[in-house]
Amino acid sequence: MITELPVEKLRKICDASRFGCETSQDIGMLDTIIGQDRAIHALKFGLDIPSKGFNIYVAGIPGTGRTTAVRRFLEESAVHQPVPSDWCYVNNFQDSSRPNAIELPPGRALEFQKDIETLVQNGTRQVRNAFESEEYALHRDSVVKSVQQQKQAILEKVGQLAQQEGFVLQATPMGLLTLPLVDGKPMSEETFMQLSKEEQEKLLEKQKKLQEALETAIRQTRLLDKDVTENLRKLDQQVAGYAISHLVNELLEKYQGVPEVNSFIENIRADILENVGQFKGEEEEKPAAVPAVLPQRTLNLRKYQVNVLVDNSTLKGAPVVVEMNPTYANLFGRVEQEAQFGTLVTDFTLIRSGALHRANGGYLVLPVEELLRNPFAWDSLKRALENEEIVIEDVIERLGFTTKSLRPEPIPLELKVVLIGRTDLYQLLLAYDEHFAELFKVKADFDIVMDRTEAREHDYAAFVCGLCELEHLKHLDRFALARLVEHGSRLAGDQEKLSTHFGQLSDLIREASFYASQEQRDYTSDEHIERAIEARYYRSSRIRERLQEMIQRGIIKVDVTGSKVGQINGLSVLDMGDIAFGQPSRITVSIGLGREGLIDIEREAKLGGPIHTKGVLILSGYLAEQFAQDKPLSLAARLVFEQNYSGVEGDSASSTELYAILSALSGLPIRQDIAVTGSVNQKGEVQAIGGVNEKVEGFFETCRLQGLTGSQGVIIPESNVANLMLKPEVVEAVKDGKFHIWAVKTIDEGIEILTGVKAGKRLEDGSFESGSVFERVDRRLRELAETLVSFGKKDSNDKEKGAEE
Length: 805
What we know:
The protein is α/β, with parallel strands linked by helices. Strands 23-24-22-21-26-29-30 form a seven-stranded mixed β-sheet, with helices on both faces. Strands 8-13-16-1-17 form a five-stranded parallel β-sheet. A three-stranded antiparallel β-sheet has the order 3-2-7, with helices on one face. Helix 3 (about 110-130) packs antiparallel against helix 6, helix 17 runs parallel beside helix 19 (about 525-540) and helix 23 (about 655-665) crosses helix 27. The protein is elongated.
């Protein structure tokens, strides 16, 4: 005799006394990640191994605390790692479009930036002071006077020669000219024209020679001017070099261990000396179109600045960077532009860092779904990891457009990238991205459940303590903790498991704490937890209640009393995203003569999915093995889910459909106060299905609304008993004998409960026990086969008579 499940099998109760405390406040906060031993092992391995390509993909569903857990684990690991270098960008004095990157010990970048700023400020002041000194003025005047004296001597010599020849040097807008003298005065043109031709030619010959001598002298003076300019430039460079030498030498000594810094400082010195005129206040003449307010001097000094890209001065270990919006610019940085007089300009001081720069030497956490959604980000990240360098590029060039922009020197990249995403995305990347497996060789798989042990239940309580302390929520008393553990098993769908969906659990705790605060309670009780569960369910139950109302009003036909042949109550689960609930459905079978076998109306109407179709085909296999060893199956049996218009998928109703077929063939009525769920194989073994709690509760609700009779219940697979975590009201109804739950292993057991008649064993002669369900089915199938044969003979005889006539 098959007995129903006892009450203790319907829900695993958590003993509140096992926590050893009165509230979660007494337990203490949790300092480890709960229930993810496999994932933690993978994370530790991925972080410890230094080889290239061992980056990590954290797989799991959202809400399991992946990001929080990974960040906490990385931060704990990062504390024991060295602080990475600082990075700066400085001007490339040879090619300003290719700024140079400088690596500095951690915490030295800002100091270096300040040192260079001080060097430029003090150097500028001291250079100007030197140029304003009396010593410099005297030295400069002596150089200038010496040249002026030489120039004057050269011109005086030419003047004396001209005087000897009766000429004089005269300055004109055209320059110095030699003019003949008459009575000590320059000869006029009229006087010259009055001279004879021979006299004119003699004067012109003398003037030509004197003019040649004059031009030679002018060339000599120009060479002197050039020499004085060069001498003055050298003087300025010597003065400026001397003025800044001690400042430069101090920095060279301070940063003697960093060749790139020393090279930059020497470049600054050389550029200051090369452009020493700017430090004297000598500005180049500006075009008329350029306003006088243009800050020319500030712009010139800007090239000496240091752009600190990464400053790790505040770190206590390796950096942990979580970038939730991994666009190309947010990952690789960007070169900003600023408007000047209607055009956009840029330089090395406008280079901005990205997450890769900030995480360099540490860990970078990225959501893979967002990463794949952003153009260029995924391919560029793979290229950076492959080449082990960070390259800042203009995104527009990736589209094929050529622009004139900066090409900052690449920065060496050494870090661990941790991608967080769904398992299906991991599988897709593994299948379709040939580089993925080479770059992300470690998979950290976050499970959605963990074993329900006493230690794990205690971890649940510690998690509650941490959440309440962090968010200043009401702590849970021990009965509330026990109720939360039971709810964790319900979410896991297993009495021996607990859910690791801590996001959902956290929301439940917050809501329960809110109710406790409304009632001005010191602690959250199990009543508040239960209220939060029911409230969340109620808020999303509009469709469920509407369907139950339609059943109650008879719009959707479901019988919960009486018995009928070829009709049975199946159970399905409707998943609305935020909640899932069970729904009874009437399944009917019609039997007729024919050779079609089982006809799935859902499949014929294209409403049945492939798994459901497979389940129906399995039924044909079961019937063939059980009843078609000595005769063919000569029937046309049509299966249908009545009033189903949205499709059927899954094989969880295959055993239910088989019961209906056996009822239709045997003529035995099936109890309508019992609903059935479970799949079946070709050997008649009932197999586990999903959503067993929702299915049982769905039929219970239907029966409750129409009135519990005390005989109603549900048949489930025996292998699903461990999944039962039914609502307290269902457990209470079973305890009071108002509702029943049976667990069966085979079709034989189930059909006996539904019909009250034994299934029947096969005897040695191949027949079944007299009066059993299977004996009736076998007899009906034999009758159908014989009838079909007789109809075949009659049809053949009719054809022969027709041919004779």
